[in-house]
Design goal:
about 525 residues; alpha/beta; nine-stranded mixed β-sheet; two-stranded antiparallel ribbon; 18 helices
């Protein structure tokens, strides 16, 4: 089981790799090489374990695929591609390439040939598009890594050597720490300023991902599918693998991502979590304008779509008639597509399903077409809960974001629950985080939020149950602060006692003035 101590060691290893590349390649490129190498090692070990287990079950206890001749391995290629989605020759396994990396003068060609072979192994199979391009960001002739081939090969050998030392478990479902996800998050923190600008992506902290997944999974024992229309690297989808994946190995994961690099990372992440290629469907494209799961409905939806994204909106003559947006009668404003994503998700939510979305706070109260969309959601009894999160949880976003929970056909009452979780956080440097996962012996903010969602009770200064009619009468305002009264922590002042003190002071001053006047009269007389 991966532990917090192993995570710390993992971070030290990443720093060691970073020092090897410092000054040669920026953070975004660095991340691609490290994660690409981790992925290469993982699928090599995963395939090896799978084949060795098959042979063991067949009575071959001493079989070791890493030493098996390539020509014999080729005979099992078709079967392995059908079952695992890819194939790797024994000579091209990570362990065998790593063993010769420092002395291989053609390491760049070895890696390029290996990666092409892995992707080519799936051509013509059901897994083809799920494998295609997974190593496209691992550019072996990147001049930033060195002017000569020898220089670049030294970098590759160093990265391979360090990744070889990493403690990466094959059974991620049983791990306390999501080693790949944690590695990805740590890399994002190391290079977040650069990655946020050049990479064009945002990472959802694992604690927030867990809250979203627990909310969407609660009170629904028959979840067969989970969907994220802005899936990024897949961290939200894969929290379901932790929460209900053990009990439902056939859970299917669906997502769409517009950024090619993060699209690749999401597919890599699926393989790294040992999810069979038949159980995930991740698509590349613009979700709002070119949805690639149209007509499908999902049991659970979790998402952290981009905040205030500009889109074509009303300038498109067809979007107002799009079956995803048309029920509201209006489109989200062109300068902020947040509620367009919300309407898209509601369309894809199955009857009886739950959707948990991280939203920019402006969508809760802004007027215009956003108010009209909120009114549609309220009148349809889709809005179940609104949770105000602490500020500064997300890298690159210092404001306090919120979670909107939509339920279709599963409302528990005629009210909307508002939860003020703004004070539920710990501090890690200059960032906040939801407590309960990173450190031991501290309050569990995640449990507190989820428990409040489940219990659905009013608690002074923390939660409020408000009727839909009252919210609509209040301009369809969904801001938590409009309904959950803030606790007055100012010092209470006893006005009566203060008045008595003032009267006493005035009397004392008057008496003193009389004495002074008396002294003056004596001196003048």
């Amino acid at each position: 089981m991966a532990t917090r101590s192993e995570r710390d060691e993992l971070h030290k290893t990443i720093w060691a790799i970073a020092n090897k590349l410092r000054g040669k390649v920026d953070g975004w490129d660095f991340k691609a090489y490290v994660l690409g190498t981790i992925f290469y090692r993982y699928i090599s070990e995963n395939l090896t374990s799978y084949i060795n287990k098959m042979q063991e079950d067949a009575g071959e206890d001493d079989f070791d695929y890493t030493t098996f001749p390539d020509e014999y391995a080729e005979e099992a290629k078709e079967q392995l591609v059908a079952e695992k989605g890819f194939f790797i020759l024994p000579s091209q396994l990570f362990c065998n390439v790593a063993a010769k990396a420092e002395t291989d003068e053609n390491l760049n060609e070895t890696l390029a040939k290996t990666f092409r072979a892995i992707e080519a192994s799936a051509v013509g199979s059901d897994a083809e598009y799920k494998i295609r391009g997974l190593f496209s960001d691992f550019i072996v002739d990147n001049s930033k890594l060195g002017i000569t081939v020898a220089d670049r090969n030294k970098v590759f050998a160093a990265v391979i050597s360090k990744v070889k030392e990493m403690k990466l478990s094959q059974n991620l479902q049983d791990n306390e720490i999501d080693t790949f996800g944690d590695t990805y998050e740590f890399l994002m923190q190391m290079y977040a300023a650069n990655a946020g600008k050049s990479g064009g992506e945002f990472f959802t902290p694992q604690e927030v991902s867990q809250v979203l997944a627990r909310i969407a999974a609660w009170d629904n024992e028959n979840i067969d599918s989970v969907y994220d229309p802005a899936c990024g690297s897949g961290s939200l989808l894969l929290k379901f693998n932790k929460i209900i994946g053990k009990n439902n190995p056939n859970l299917r994961y669906y997502g769409q991502e517009i950024n090619p690099t993060t699209y690749n990372l999401c597919r890599i992440n699926m393989f790294l979590h040992n999810i069979n290629f038949n159980n995930f469907d991740i698509q590349l494209g613009d979700t709002l304008l070119n949805p690639l799961h149209l007509g499908m409905e999902f049991d659970a939806i979790v998402s952290n779509p981009p905040y205030s994204l500009r889109w074509i909106g009303k300038d498109s003559p067809i979007l107002i008639n799009d079956e995803r947006y048309s029920p509201a009668g209006v489109l989200a404003p062109q300068k902020a597509a947040d509620l367009a994503f919300t309407m898209h998700m509601l369309y894809h939510l199955k009857e009886g399903g739950t959707c948990a979305i991280v939203e920019f706070p402006g969508v809760l109260y802004r007027s215009g077409t956003e108010k009209q969309i909120r009114e549609y959601l309220l009148n349809g009894n889709y809005v179940d809960t609104v949770i105000q999160l602490p500020a500064n949880l997300f890298f690159g976003v210092s404001i306090a974001t919120c979670i909107i929970v939509l339920r279709k056909g599963r409302r528990r009452d005629g009210n909307v629950l508002f939860i003020d979780a703004t004070k539920l956080c710990g501090k890690d440097g200059n960032k906040n985080y939801l407590r309960g996962e990173r450190k031991e012996n501290e309050p569990n903010d995640m449990d507190t939020i989820v428990d409040a969602y489940i219990k659905r009770e009013e608690v002074n200064h923390f939660t409020a149950l408000v009727s839909v009619d009252k919210i609509i009468a209040n301009d369809c305002n969904l801001s938590v602060s409009s309904y959950v009264e803030q606790e007055d922590t100012r010092e209470k002042i006893d006005i009566m006692a203060v008045n008595k003190d003032i009267v006493k002071v005035v009397n004392d001053v008057n008496k003193l003035r009389e004495k002074v006047n008396g002294f003056i009269e004596e001196m003048e007389g």
